[in-house]
Amino acid sequence: MLSACQRRSQGTDLPADIDLVCTVDPSPAVVGPAQVTFSLTDSTGAPVRIESFRLRADMTHAGMAPLLASGVEAEPGEIVVELDWPMSGDWVLSVQATLADGRELSREISLTVQATP
Amino acid sequence: MAAPSLARPPTPRLDLLRLPWLGRVLRWRWSRLALQGFFLCMAVLVLYDGFTGPQLAPANTATVLVWVHYRGFVVLALLLVGNLFCAGCPFALPRTLARRLARPGRRFPRLLRNKWVSIAGLFFLFWLYEWLDLWASPLLTAWLVVAYFAGSFLLEALYSESPFCKYVCPLGAFNFTYSTGSPFMIAARDLNTCRDCTGKECLRGSHAVSGCGTELFVPQIRSNMDCVLCLDCVRACPYDNVALAARPPAFEWLSGLWPQRWDRAFLVVGLAFFALSNAFGMVPPVRTVEAWLRDHLGMESDGMRLLVLFAVGNLALPAMALLGAAWGSRRLTPGAVRPTMKALVARYAPGFVPVGFGLWLAHYGFHVAVGGLTIVPVLQSFMLDHGNTWLGTAPDWALGALLPIEWVFPLQVIAVLGGLFVGLAVVARAGLRSGLPPDGALRQLLPWALVLTLITIAALSIFNLPMDMRGTVQGSG
User: Fold this and answer.
1) Phi/psi at A79 (nearest 5 deg)?
2) Taking the CA atoms of chain B, what radius of gyration do you get in angstroms?
């Protein structure tokens, strides 16, 4: 089952008519391989095409190397990124995307990764 | 009884100040200022980037330098050399200005001339660290540095001695405590020279050089406690009679000269428990405990929950350990030669220093091992943000660990068990030197050995858990 990540409001640059939903599988996130999906829709709910997409995942603690990934559209308006969470704790996903219409989008999303049960 | 042979200061067989090149550098009049200048530059960078840089902790020099490198290198420096970070402390730099403002002769209140204030400071700092997730906030880290500068300046301006370093600074208390195990110590080269000295410049200073800021008198120094390694005494001595002498391992813990003071005993025992609670704050069970406090005791405030946790873990438990071990030790000692609780505490408390140090080394060493190289891309990014390509044209974010991750836990185990073995050796030696027959000595030291072993078991259990780096990013929802 997929679930939405927690959203952040600060440090973001998201066009007003664009909605970004992030889902992670498995959910809740646990240490190990994961699939993170980002879906962009406009105010009518229609998918928003993405030209390029970059993701940076940082732990909130200083001194941890980030995970870096790029992504391509799997479906219109949908990016799927494969990650391997190395450590449990609080993470910040920083999304940088260029939309097909040339607009830039950036967003920070908080996510908690739990230890492997 | 203390062994008189061990009560003497170490004979300076190896004196760092006599080494050809290093000695010259150390004795140079401006060597401390140069070191402080380096750390001041670091502090300015922390302030600048903390206030203006990205508020993502792993991408900001403030959080990376303070919470990864500073802490890690402090413990390494204490282990390998001594109290280098007090020597280079930039917070002491505004002292010159502050002293001009100070009313001469005004002393720090007698009631506060002990370690209780710095113990309270340590408690407050660790609570603040957990409550505000300081490791995750460059901004708050920068404010902490500001608070340090302000506190040091204020106390120097109010009082004519150096009360901030000696009685208040929590970092200083940490450094002082663990420098008691450092391999070098200030000592007189020839005690007869000191005996004939009338000026006592090492203590009082001279027209050209300050004396000891923390009021230590070289021929009487038997401990690194309260020594900030400024080497002012070296420069002040008109007879060139001060050494930075190598000393036998664990010299201070085995000297039998540990003072009979509750504040000093609580500081070393408390720091071992602070190490436990600090590491416990980074593993998943802390979330369970916090949830229990919220659900069963109705504590909605994170700060209040942590206050309760820390009051138990950092105050009640060390107090119980200290008093419980002393009580048990006294009860197990034959009545005719039963020492006071305070005497027992002074005899066995040094055993907590290596145990605590092993815990800090394991914890802070972990952060350096897994993130020591992250400073490279962070600095690259900082330079690029300011239009400078000296460090490259793109940050190499792949840089992170200094050591393979699979090495880290075994090394942590070595640090923790090493601390325990040294701690047990210290209490065993103290017991055997108590004047009791071996079976009586064994009974007396047993409660202390038990507490040290329990701390170690708790520490290994914590380090064996997966790290859970919690933290709230500024402004996160």
Assistant:
1) -115, 130
2) 23
Q: Where are the domains of chain B?
A: 16-247, 262-463
| Widest distance between CA atoms in chain A | 44
Please give, rounded to a whole number of angstroms, the shortest distance from the CA of A64 to a CA of chain B. Answer: 5
Q: Which pLDDT score, from 0 to 100, does residue B283 have?
A: 87
* Contact partners, residue B35, CB within 8 Å, separation at least 6: B84, B87, B88
Instruction: Kindly provide the b/e burial profile for residues B413-426, where b requires at least 16 CB atoms within 10 angstroms of the residue's own CB.
Output: bebbebbbebbbbb
pLDDT < 50 positions in chain A: 1-4, 6-11
Q: What is the set of domains in chain A, with CATH numbers?
A: 3-113 (2.60.40.1930)
pLDDT tens for each residue of B65-83: 999 999 999 999 999 999 9
- B58–A87 C-beta distance less than 8 A: no
C-alpha B470/C-alpha B467 separation (Å) is 9
Per-residue pLDDT tens for B251-298? 999 988 899 999 999 999 999 999 999 999 888 888 899 999 999 999
Residue A91 to chain B, least CA–CA distance (Å): 8
What would the mean pLDDT of B388-395 be, rounded to a whole number?
95
> Does position B5 have pLDDT exceeding 70, yes or no?
no
**Which residues of chain A are at the B interface, by a Cβ-Cβ cutoff of 8 Å?**
6-11, 31, 56, 58-66, 68, 86-90, 92, 94, 108, 110, 114-116
Q: Test A88 with B284 for CB contact under 8 angstroms.
A: yes
Report the C-alpha gap between B2 and B347 in whole angstroms.
9
Average pLDDT, chain B: 92
B-chain residues within 8 Å CB-CB of A108?
A: 473, 476
**B contact test, residue of A12, A61, A84, A88 with most B CBs within 10 A:** A61
Nearest residue in A to B466, CA atom: A115
Tell whether ipTM is more than 0.95.
no
- Partners of A109 in beta bridges: A7, A93
Tell me how close the Cα of B473 comes to any Cα of chain A, in angstroms: 6
Task: Using alpha carbons, select from B217, B242, B251, B191 the residue that is nearest to residue B5.
Answer: B251
B397 contact A CB<8A: yes
Under an 8 A CB cutoff, do B469 and A87 touch? yes
Residue of A nearest to B364 (CA): A63
Provide, as residue numbers in chain A, all residues whose Cβ is less than 8 Å from the Cβ of B370: 63-64
How high is the pLDDT of residue A2? 38
Q: How confident is the model at residue B3 (pLDDT cuts 50, 70, 90)?
A: very low
Q: Binning pLDDT at 50, 70 and 90, where does residue B473 land? A: very low
- Asked if A10 lies within 8 A of B135 by C-beta distance, the reply is no
**Residue carrying the six token digits 């050089």:** B209
In this prediction, what percent of chain B has a pLDDT beyond 90? 81
State phi, psi for B173 to the nearest 5 degrees. Answer: -60, -40
Q: Which residues of B1-36 are buried (b: 16+ CB within 10 A; e: fewer)?
A: ebeeebeebbebeebbbbeeeeeeebbeeebbeebb
Chain B residues with CB inside 8 Å of A114's CB? 284
